[in-house]
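Handoff note, outgoing to incoming analyst
You'll be picking up this chain. Sequence as last confirmed:
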Amino acid sequence: MVLDLLENLGTYEALNPHFSKVVDFLQKADLAALPIGRNEICGDTVYANVMEVKPKSKQDAFIEIHRRYIDIQIPLTADETMGYTPITELPDAVYDTAGDAAIYPVGMPARDYFNVRKGEFTIFFPQDGHAPAITDAPLKKVVIKVAVE
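Most recent structure output, in case you need it:
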């Protein structure tokens, strides 16, 4: 897992061969103006999901993991709290191949919680269980999905 300022994302390009596409997209895109839903960057290899999330408490959040995609999560309109638990500390869960996710029960606490402020991003790799979208107010965010290769 990575937490850093958005302006530093380029320093992580070596972690995945597709991260340069993300950096290029972020340099050109007006994130606030992106429409809700899927925004194409490079087909199924790299794309951005823009979403509006409703307020959610830690007790209402759920931990998820992905195998085929890395998540780069960027809060746009407010700060966001996220939970983190390494996959090695999570019990087995049913993995949905089509949705590329294993979802853990609502209310299962994460090991750690941290704040992601506007202007920051997180990167969650397949080994990172994460519980995003914990907020006190509605939030618009971007989740960039990057194929693991």
